[in-house]
Write the structure tokens for this entry.
Amino acid sequence: MMNKVMLIGRLTRDPDLRYTPSNIATVTFSIAVNRPFTNQNGVREADFINIIAWRKQAENVKKYITKGSLVAVEGRIQTRNYDDKDGKKVYVTEVVADNVQFLEPKGQRSMESNNNYEPSDNVQTTDVGEDPYIDFGQTVELSDDDIAF
């Protein structure tokens, strides 16, 4: 089986860096990715995709990118659920980033989204080579009723 995601988009908000109780860095952010077609009104819609990264990569994301930055994300889809403060089950789908590439030099960012991306010699990459969930300790329990097929 394969679970592989590759996306290019712009951050919709500044990254949110936090640390687990065992002091492991984790960052969350979301990117807007244009759909490859326009709707019936001629407008190109976008999908807003939640991303999570861990450890040194998380710290680099927080340090080097901000809202509007163009990034490439390589990772995998992850689903999880939890009970909110009212006891209601909340389902989350997100991309766990294995690799985040910064596609624009920090000083040359444009807040406009377009498809005319210029290649950059200034690409910074971080790669997580180990399991990002070591020491995280949360398990998701699913019953047969939770599975759609």
Q: What stands out?
A: The chain has one helix and seven strands. The helical segments are 55-64. Confidence is low (pLDDT under 50) at residues 111-140.
